[in-house]
Design goal:
46% helix; 11% strand; alpha/beta; elongated; Alpha/beta knot; 2 domains
Amino acid sequence: MSMGDRQGLPLPQRTYSLHIVLVGASHPGNLGAICRSMLNYGFASLRLVNPVCSPDDIEARNRAKHAGRILDSCQVYDSLEDATSDCSLTVGTSGKREIGTKTTFRHFMYPWEFAERLEDFTESVSLVFGEEGKGLSTDDLGLCDFLVTLPTWEGYPIANLSHAVNTCVYELHRTTVHSKQGSDPGIPDIVPLERSLNPTLKSILQQGIMEMGQALPGNDDRKHSFSHNLRRGIMRSMPTEDEATRLIGGILDATTALQYVAGNSEWRSKRRRKITRNEEE
């Protein structure tokens, strides 16, 4: 399925509505990249406050790729107050590390804590980002209920605008994946959140490893050492049930081949996978 064909999938369902608000956006490339990050993680509401660049800029469109629909539907406002008037929570962002009396003005939390706070929130939220190279003004910061900051290196704390947006929406989406994977068609389900084997499958895997070790040439110590190390190596990787099933099939094939080469009749009487007459010859 191509990317264009996947656009019909629903966005992830969340208890809250998120609006990304950009104040004074001036670089069309960043604007397009932000749209792409937003749609990558299932967010589609963008609001622009006094933008310096246009949503129709060709660079913005090129950088947005398949997220051009966000540029099509974005709303433009004259003030941050207007852009957030329908939101129950207004969260600003800043990378500045103030000291002294200014510290209390910036009530920070990290993106993952912000994401956790929103898990059960049921209203509209605006996440506000300032202009590239300037950030939010003191007045705009004063309109925010609290601020989120990235845990960047103290020696160079200010991140690119599109990178900052990407980090925040990623953390929000990560929390959604943890809570809704398997129950929301808009959430990827290809990677299991928990890696475990049921006892029956684990027993079959261990038996296969033991039989493979016994089929090896050499003394009992070598066979036991091989089986022990292979079992520990596989289990240390915490395979999924699908991975374990595939490993079992390969181990059984290898065991059958070792028994056949060694002239061990068990390859014929106890093999679990069919071998053609040509293979027997």
